[in-house]
Amino acid sequence: MKTDLEICYEAKMEEINKIAKRYNILDKEITNYGPYMAKVDLFLLKRLEKEKDGKLILVTAITPTPLGEGKSTVTIGLVDALNALGKKAIGALREPSLGPVFGVKGGAAGGGYAQVNPMVELNLHFTGDLHAITTANNLVSAVIDNVIYQGNSLNIDPNKITWKRCLDLNDRALREVEVGLSSTKEVPRKDNYNITVASEIMATFCLADSYEDLKERLDRTIVAYTYDDQEVTIKDLQITGSLLVLLKEALKPNIIQTLENNLFFVHGGPFANIAHGCNSILATKMALKLGDYIITEAGFGADLGAEKFLDIKSQVAHLNPNLVVIVATIRALKYHGSGSLELGIQNLARHLETVKKYNVNYVIALNRFKDDTEDEIKFMKKWAKDNNHPLALTEVYSKGGTKGGQELALKVLENLSNKKLKPIYKVTDDIYKKIESICFEVYQAEKIEYSSLAKAKLDSYQEKYQDFYICMAKTPNSLTDDAKVLGIPGKHTIHIKDVRLATGSKFIICLTGSIMTMPGLSKNPKAYTIKLLKDGKVDGLS
């Protein structure tokens, strides 16, 4: 089979304005970035505010494995398959980070014959959103240090600065640095960098539903504390206006197309462990006004991405998903069962249990790989039938949505519902009750252990931050907080070692272990293989 990049180069793209027009986006609402990418102005939402929302379909997966499950590929293929059936379907994904592009993955635009295009531009800079977020984040850092340098009118304690610089690359050397070494007036201190997608501005940006909402969120974002433990916010720094100017164009959602020339929003990209792992609320809301069926995705497995989509994003944006698609592969299920499909399938069953608790219908998308045997596929179909789980085989990677996604598309249409979403917790619940709801209902832990540090912080948050959402920072590789525990764990304990406040996004982030917010490169990263050819085309990006 051809490489992802070869398939994209051979695909015939339509001008994005023509595609946008088919979906009721006006030319005056578009800012073009070349012929095939564009941004959509926010006033589109005002024009269409009385339009009925389309059906919302969330794509999630079993616990991730090194082999990959193909969530984005299935998301894209499902959009194409529904459009091939004559349905007005639109997709919504997160933007790729340059870290994984030059690291292990080499790109994040789907795969095979289910991709979004132009794939190269999407993976390399795109419309500049992540650069704008990086710059805004680092302006905050620069101003904090400048306030201290210029006499420290805000009484900032250099040892209580909570804001971190960021960079949209994998660079482990920046996990711990020392700043303030250039003059005697500065206070040398240790600092850390996050990758841009782990920046609080990224999470805040993706939850904002207008410029005014973004302004309010930025204003209240805590960046440091004074010597007498008073909060210092971005509003105190007096730079909210500058940050909004930097983010002005970035906040407009981006549109591109699939290989089959269907519309896709690709906007925002927060981590799914330290943040909520979903594309922007603005992109989702635009898509809901423009299409009859909206297919979106949340990062990692259902215990992280889907939980945060259903408990955080859906409550913030007042969304009511009509279906959840859970992607599984036979090879990944065998991985969770140490080679046994019969044992590994329990991981899928656990995630189905979780989704049921939210009162949302679901469909299993069995993403077929070339080495899957007929006996294995028969086993999966029989298991699904015996347990009353709707399952569809999907081959969108090798055949595209029109030819390889019809079974899934039809199964999705059969199982859509209008049931009211029941989040695991209400945002008005007690902080500890919210944490317990996730740990006991989603992770099915036996108990929770809080460090003395975490307990002290949570106790202090009880009154002022009662209405914050819980954002669990947990390994994506296990249903527990131990990445080595595969499949279905027995009795286990969730260990909350520390908590952080993200006041812009209204998160209480519970750290259950050592969460990596600045990845490193592997021994042989993709950066070694990506190159520019004489004809101007990019090679090695896949």
Q: Any overview of this molecule?
A:
This protein has 542 residues and is of the alpha/beta class. Strands 1, 2, 3, 4, 5, 6, 14, 15, 16, 17, 18 and 19 form a 12-stranded mixed beta sheet that branches. A 3-stranded antiparallel beta sheet has the order 7-12-13. Strands 21-24-23 form a 3-stranded mixed beta sheet. The longest helix has 21 residues, at 129-149.
Summarize the structure.
With 542 residues, this protein is α/β, with parallel strands linked by helices.
Q: Per DSSP, what share of the residues sits in E-state strands of 2 or more residues?
A: 15-25%
Output the number of helix runs. 20
Largest sheet, described in full? Answer: 12 strands, mixed
Q: Which segments are poorly predicted (pLDDT under 50) over 5 or more consecutive residues? A: none
Total count of domains: 3
Number of strands: 26
Distance between the termini: 13 Å
Mean pLDDT value: 95
CATH class of the largest domain: Alpha Beta
What spatial form do the alpha-carbon principal axes imply? Answer: globular
Q: Please compute the radius of gyration using only Cα atoms.
A: 23 Å
| Fraction in helix | 25-40%
CATH superfamily of the largest domain: P-loop containing nucleotide triphosphate hydrolases
CATH topology (fold) name of the largest domain = Rossmann fold
Decide which structural class fits the backbone.
Answer: alpha/beta
CATH architecture of the largest domain: 3-Layer(aba) Sandwich
